[in-house]
Every structure is written in structure tokens, then in C-alpha cells.
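To fix ideas, we close by showing one paired sequence and structure record:
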Amino acid sequence: MHYLYIITIFAIFVSFISDREKTIKALKIAFKKLVKVLKPLLTMIIFVSLALTFVPDRIIYEYLADSSNNKFVAMTIAAFLGSITLMPGFIAFPLSGILLNKGVPYMVLSAFTTTLMMVGVLTAPLEKKYFGMKVTVIRNVISFGIAIIVALVTGVFFWEIF
């Protein structure tokens, strides 16, 4: 991760040498966008943190991580939760890391994050408005199917199915 910071600083330095005014203008724009995104980001982090605080680890483990439980049931639960949840990727992936540390299998995390990114139950009304009901349903059903396939393939690659 540190090499990305070094590359970024180097790129800004080269840009600054090349055209000082454009670089300063770009940095001001970037800062304004960061400030604009900071409030929703912090709000989402707070809500996720509260949810993880109030939902006991035992429940997360029981429904999503317990190996005696059917992994396909856990995958289905995770896919359902991902489908009805609206969360940006920069929150979803760190959340998946936390769940992984709590023992949730990769297959279940794959189902959760893939449906989270591809299936939009909460955004369906807006999508229906622009694309129509038929396209919205078809897209969500196909996306859900692809997410399940991705989760199963993930399970195979990480030896969680066999």
C-alpha cells in the first residue's frame, strides 16, 4: 500500500513541475470532492460500526461462518443481505475483511459483496423509472445469478465446497 502513496506523491510532484497552476487547481478540486464525500462516508462507517457492535459475534458466526451449518444456506443468506443493502464498495470491502476475521468463508463473502455491487433491490424503483420494470427485473435476476455463480467458483478455488 505504501508504494501507491509513493507513486501518487511522485505523480503530483511531476505534475507540479510540469504545470503548477493546473496541479494546484486539481488538488483544490480533489479536496472539495473529498470534503463532499466525507460526510456520507463517515455516516456509513458509523452505521456499520454500530451494527457490528450490536450484532453479537455469535449470531454472525452462527448464520454466516459455522462450518456445521450448510455453507449454501449461509451463502444464500449473504446473497439476500447483499441484495437488499445499499452500501458503497469502500465500506463493503473493509466490512468483508472484518467478517473474514470473524471466520466467515470466502464463498459467503463473495456472495455478499457481489450481490451488494450488482443487485439493487433498494435502487429498483429509481432504475424502474429510467429503464422500465422489465429491464430492472431481468437485470437484477441475471445479476443475482451471476453473483451466485461467482460465489460458487470462489468456494471451489478456496476449497470451501469440496
About this structure: Residues 20-54 form the longest helix (35 residues). The chain has two domains: 1-54, 56-162.
